[in-house]
Amino acid sequence: MSAKYLLLGLLALLLINSCSSRKPVVDPQLILQNGITFWNYNLQYVRLYEDYNAIDEKAKSVTRETFLRQLLTGRYLPLRLQSADSTAVYQLYPLPAKVDPSLKALLQQWAGDEYQFYRAEGKPLPNYHFVDMKGKVYSPQTMVGKIVVLKCWFVHCVACVAEMPALNALKQRYQDRSDIEFVSLCLNPKDKVATFLGKTKFDYATVANQTKYLENQLKIGSYPMHFVVNKQGLVVKQVNRYQGVVYTLNKM
């Protein structure tokens, strides 16, 4: 074996050992106690809308799609490992045989959502023609050359309303960017939306009565939901946390 290939082999071995020696940010036994402990861990440490490195149970690098498809099986926990830099590292951690079936079902449901978000990337937003409460039209033709940030919600969604102050601040941050449109698609009819907006400050342009589009075209089953669409009309990110919108716009 030449010195060149020997050196490459040693470097690969060092990389594998480095990955496998990393400690998890949280003990997996604590994460897997029940659905609440998993969800708390998920909310605090798992951000798959960000750039990350994925490895399997043997610390071998895998693609995002492979990683997410393995999570879909319900056999693995996305275990975040300590990292020396800002890029997160997640490892497929095999679930114990005696894990609570309800927790396994929760993991699979969450993984299904994340895989759906991943699959949306790079695809055009389904054909649309929105008219907001002030009469402005949003369509592939009128949005040429613009980034479109969409929030999908309904009036009585507590989580949807709770994030509105943060979204108002986000829109304010980009107020000088004429190439970015912030639009919300609401399930409720126009009169109910008008009553809500008369009491609650929300600075996105709002399109009412969008149940058919959200359910039949975007296939949304939980709210809030967000999409960031680039200037070419392709979905860059689908997320159910507004922090993912902030992250994506920062990168763009």
From TrEMBL:
<dbReference type="InterPro" id="IPR000866">
    <property type="entry name" value="AhpC/TSA"/>
</dbReference>
<feature type="signal peptide">
    <location>
        <begin position="1"/>
        <end position="22"/>
    </location>
</feature>
<dbReference type="InterPro" id="IPR036249">
    <property type="entry name" value="Thioredoxin-like_sf"/>
</dbReference>
<feature type="domain" description="Thioredoxin">
    <location>
        <begin position="119"/>
        <end position="252"/>
    </location>
</feature>
<dbReference type="InterPro" id="IPR013766">
    <property type="entry name" value="Thioredoxin_domain"/>
</dbReference>
<protein>
    <submittedName>
        <fullName>Alkyl hydroperoxide reductase/ Thiol specific antioxidant/ Mal allergen</fullName>
    </submittedName>
</protein>
<dbReference type="GO" id="GO:0016491">
    <property type="term" value="F:oxidoreductase activity"/>
</dbReference>
<keyword id="KW-0732">Signal</keyword>
<dbReference type="GO" id="GO:0016209">
    <property type="term" value="F:antioxidant activity"/>
</dbReference>
<dbReference type="Pfam" id="PF00578">
    <property type="entry name" value="AhpC-TSA"/>
</dbReference>
<dbReference type="InterPro" id="IPR050553">
    <property type="entry name" value="Thioredoxin_ResA/DsbE_sf"/>
</dbReference>
